[in-house]
Amino acid sequence: MISESKFIRMVDEHTIEVSLPNQMGYERIAMACSASFAKIVGFLPERIEDLKTAVSEACLNAMEHGNLNRLDKRVLVSMNYKDNVFSVSVLDQGEGMHESPQNLEDPDIEKKIENLQTPRGLGIFLIKQLVDQVEFNQISDEGHMVRMVLRLTG
Ligand SMILES: Nc1ncnc2c1ncn2[C@@H]1O[C@H](COP(=O)(O)OP(=O)(O)O)[C@@H](O)[C@H]1O
Ligand SMILES: [Mg+2]
Fold first, then answer.
1. Could you tell me the residue range of the domain that residue 103 belongs to?
2. What's the CA-to-centroid distance between 86 and ligand 2, angstroms?
3. Of 24, 40, 51, 129, which is least surrounded by CB within 10 A?
């Protein structure tokens, strides 16, 4: 029998890890887990909504661009809270981004709303807007990782 702990585990007292199948829809599990965790440690509802959107976009990118929609791959989401810093790392089994996300031009939201520009290309822009700090393109032996940080203030 496959143990449940293979998919969700409390790594240490500050860290929860979720291993997702590489299938659109499962990003919702990461959204729900990170939202519950953030609520427990005291984030306000509106910050939690920002977090959920950022986590969702990072997971979808991991599935689509990192793991190239391959069903035999997985996305590992690791959430950590310590000393007022909440971080979420999203790891895929791909090679990372070819274009530096820092060089990506910001999308023209007006044009997108009016359908004059493709609705694609919003994920990275949203992540940058919604979290306090983000590190894209962290490459290791295990794959490619995006790390997002939200600080608990007040
Ligand atoms: N995990 C990833 N691995 C490899 N490339 C990525 C990853 N995430 C994003 N990218 C690259 O960055 C681009 C912009 O991502 P994003 O802003 O989310 O727009 P979209 O997903 O609609 O293309 C993607 O088209 C892709 O080329
Ligand atoms: Mg995207």
1. 4-151
2. 22
3. 40
